[in-house]
Task: inverse folding
């Protein structure tokens, strides 16, 4: 099975930076995904990491260390609209169906 | 322009009644998934499909069945709804390479 941990909640100030950590345990790692989910809406794709290192997309960056079973999502220049839940998900190549296993999500509250 | 739609968006039903939720895609993706989302549990996989008439169980499949008679439709059935199945249900689709997973808008189901 898989075990994915991320903090439940974080608070940050508009314009600041927030880093959301995700640790995972899996028998056959095959990719880590980050999703954003606003309250009452569907999750939307933010980033995908399969190799070690940093992937940058505008204000959002995602980092992966496979040897440590660790990833983080970095949100820079925070805006009020970034208040949402951020979901870490892992895919295991040993599992059929390309399916993702999700962590519990981190709710980020951006304050003025 | 949504490539994935869920119906209904909201439903209230009584305990013991059968309920079917529909997921429809226009992307011709091979893989389809049903997740449920509850406070404190994140997204949990109920069932998934890797092709027409090819389905398998996820981590929380008890009380649910699925069918996929054509590529574009994936149905989730609660044979006899219980209050513990009150939840938000999300359908997702992915291509064979599994680098992109797209979620539907969700169905909010209340069992009274």
Result:
């Amino acid at each position: 099975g898989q075990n994915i941990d991320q903090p439940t909640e974080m608070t940050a100030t508009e314009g600041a930076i927030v880093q959301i950590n995700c640790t995972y345990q899996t028998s056959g790692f095959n990719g880590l995904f980050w999703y954003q989910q606003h309250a009452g809406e569907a999750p939307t794709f933010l980033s995908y990491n399969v190799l070690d290192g940093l992937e940058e997309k505008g204000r959002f960056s995602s980092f992966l260390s496979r040897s440590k079973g660790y990833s983080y999502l970095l949100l820079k220049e925070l805006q009020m609209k970034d208040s949402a839940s951020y979901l870490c998900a892992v895919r295991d190549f040993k599992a059929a169906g390309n399916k993702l296993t999700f962590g519990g999500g981190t709710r980020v509250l951006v304050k003025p | 322009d949504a490539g994935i739609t869920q119906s209904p968006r909201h439903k209230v039903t009584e305990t013991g009644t059968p309920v079917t939720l529909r997921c429809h895609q226009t992307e011709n993706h091979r893989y389809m998934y049903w997740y449920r989302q509850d406070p404190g549990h994140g997204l949990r996989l109920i069932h998934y499909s890797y092709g027409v008439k090819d389905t398998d169980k996820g981590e929380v499949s008890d009380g649910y069945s699925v069918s996929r008679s054509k590529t574009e439709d994936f149905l989730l059935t609660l044979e006899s709804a219980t209050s513990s199945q009150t939840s938000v249900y999300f359908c997702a689709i992915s291509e064979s390479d599994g680098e992109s997973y797209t979620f539907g808008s969700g169905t909010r189901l209340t069992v009274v």
Observations:
- DSSP finds no helices and eleven strands in chain A.
- The mean pLDDT of chain A is 93.
- The radius of gyration of chain A is 14 Å.
- Chain A touches chain B through 22 residues (CB under 8 Å).
